[in-house]
Amino acid sequence: MTVTNTAATAVASEAGPADPATVRRPRRGSAIGKRVWNAAGAGLVVAALAGIWEGYKALGRAFDDVLPGTRIGFPVATDDMSMPHVWSILGALVEPARRSDPTTLGSYLLGETGVTLREAFYGLLAGSSLGLLLAVLFLHLVPLSKGLMPWLVASQTVPLVAIAPMIVIWGGQAGAPPWVAVTGIAAYLAFFPVTINALRGLQSPPKVQLDFMRSVGANRRQVLGWLRVPAALPFVFAGLRLAATASVVGAIVGELSAGTGRGIGRAILTFAYYYSNGPEKLYAAVLVAAAAGIVFVQALALVERLALRHRQTR
Amino acid sequence: MSEAAIIAVRGVNKEFTGGNRSVTALRDIDLTIDRGEFVSLLGPSGCGKSTLLRILADLTEPTSGTVSLNGKTPRAARTDRDYGMVFQQAGLFEWRTVQRNVELPLQVAGVDKQTRRAKAQEMLELVRLTDFSRHLPWQLSGGMQQRVAIARALSADPEILFMDEPLGALDEMNRERLQGELLRIWSDTRTTVVFVTHSISEAVFLSSRIVVMSARPGRIAASIDVDLPYPRTAATRTTEAFFAKVTEVRTALHGVPAEQEVR
Ligand SMILES: Nc1ncnc2c1ncn2[C@@H]1O[C@H](COP(=O)(O)OP(=O)(O)OP(=O)(O)O)[C@@H](O)[C@H]1O
Ligand SMILES: [Mg+2]
C-alpha cells in the first residue's frame, strides 16, 4: 500500500499538474465522509445538550435546588414545572394538542412552522432582491451610497419591537392581510446584510481583472454581468445566510406584533400564556422553532453549495 | 510617420498627482514601433515602463502628448480590440473554465458561440493547452495560467500584443521555456509585440529591438537593435553575439543615470 502510494505520488509530482487525469476536484468519497462526520457531530451536540439538561435536573432534584452545604440556590429551579424532562417534551409532540382535537402537538406545530417559514421565505426573497438592487445602485452611484448608507445602518439599530407594530399598523391601514406585514418585517431585517455583502462582493474583483475587461473594450453592463456579479456570488451567499436567520427571527417577532392567529411565534406566545397547563408544550414549540430555523438556513446552504460547486474551496 | 509604423508616441508626459505631491512618471517620450516588431521596454523599477504601456493601451491617460495605435486613438483601438494585453498576474476569472476564459474577449465582441468555441480551441492549440480546456484556473500551475492569459489576449486576433512582465512571477526554468514559446507564437501570429521586462537577458533573447528607459523622470535613454537571427533557440543564449548584446544593453542601462547626473 505504502509502496504504491509513494510511486503514485512520485509520478504525479513528475508530471506536475500537467497531466489532466491527475488534476481533479477533491475526491467525492472524502466529501461524503466529511458530510457523515458533520451529521454525527451535530447529533452528538444535541445528545450532549439533552444530557446536560437532564444531569442538571437530576442534581437539582437530589439536592433540592440548593448547592450542598450552602444556602446558595440553583439559578433555575428543576421541578417538572420549570424544567420538564426531555422525554416529556418529546412525548408531548406525539400527543393531541387539545382535548377536543386528535391532531398531535407535533403536526400542529409543524403546520404553524410552515406558515412562519413561508413568511420568512417571502421576506427573504423580497429583502434580498431589494438588497441586491441597492448594492448595484450603490456601486454605480457612489455619492448616493455615501448619503444613504448611514441611514441604512441607522435603520438596523432601531429596535425591532419598535418597528414591528408600526409596520403592522401601516399594513392594516393599507388593507393588507396580517401575513403581509409579517413578511415585510422579515424583509426589513433581511435586506441589510445582503446589501452590505453584495456591495463588497461587487467591489471585490482585483485591478488586473478590471483592467483586462477594459482592455477588451467591455462596457459597464458586461463588466457587471461577467465579472462583478460572478465575483460577488460567494459574498452574496454569506449575506444571504445572515439574512435567512434574520428573516426567521423577523417573521417570529412579527407574528407576536401582528394580529395573526397563525405561525410558530403565535404558538409560542399562546403556550407561554398557558404555561401552567403544560410547560412541556412551550419547550416543544421552542424546539420546533429552532429546528425550523436550522432547516431553513441549511436549505440555503445547499443552494449555495450547488451554485459555488466549481469554485476552489478556500 | 512611416507607412510601417503601427504605434506612434509623440511628446508624451505623465504626471501622477496625489494630495500635494506629484510624480513625473514619464517625460518627453517619443517612440515609433513598426508593424511586426518585437520591442522590449527595459529599465529599472519605477522608470515608467508599466505607465507607458498602460498609456498605449488606454488604461491610463497621458498628461500631455499624443499616441496613435494602428492609425487610431488608443481608445478607438481598445474598443476595436486592436490589441490584446497580458499582465503580470494571469488574472483569469476563477469561475470560468480555461476555454471560457479564452472566449471572453470574443464574448465581449458579441461573437456567436460556435465561432467562439472554435477560436478558443485554436488559441489553446497555439499555447499547447488543448487538454486543459475544461479545467478551472486554480487547477493549473502559474506558468500554465500565464499561457491561458496569452491565449485569451490573442483570441480576438489583435494586431498588437502588450505584455507587462508576463513571465515575472515564474521560476527560471519555466521562464526560459515560455520565452521560447512566446517567440514561436509571435512568428506564428505575426503580431507586433510590446514587452515590458527588467531582465536584460530576457529582453535580448526575445526582442528585435530594445528600448532602454531611465528613471526619475522616466525617459527613453536608448534604442538598441538586436540583430541576432530568428528563430532563436536555447543555443542562442550561449553564443558570443548574445553575450556581446547583453553587455551592450547593460552598458546602456547603467551608463544613462551617470550621464544625466553630469548634465
Ligand atoms: N497610479 C499611480 N499613482 C501614483 N503614482 C504612480 C501610479 N502608477 C505609477 N506611479 C509612479 O510612476 C512611476 C512609474 O511607475 P511604473 O509602474 O510605470 O514603473 P515600472 O517601470 O513599471 O516599475 P516596475 O518595474 O517596478 O514595474 C513610479 O514612480 C510610480 O510610483
Ligand atoms: Mg511595472
From TrEMBL, chain A:
The keyword Transport applies. Residues 113-304 form the ABC transmembrane type-1 domain. Keywords: Cell membrane, Membrane, Transmembrane, Transmembrane helix, Transport. Residues 1-27 are annotated as: Disordered. It is found in: Cell membrane. SUPFAM superfamilies: MetI-like (SSF161098). InterPro entries: MetI-like (IPR000515), MetI-like_sf (IPR035906). It is a multi-pass membrane protein. Residues 1-12 have a biased composition (Low complexity). It comes from the Bacteria. CDD domains: TM_PBP2. Signal peptide: none annotated. The chain crosses the membrane at residues 36-53, 120-139, 151-173, 179-202, 223-244, 282-303. Gene3D superfamilies: MetI-like. Belongs to the binding-protein-dependent transport system permease family. This is ABC transporter permease subunit. It comes from Micromonospora echinofusca.
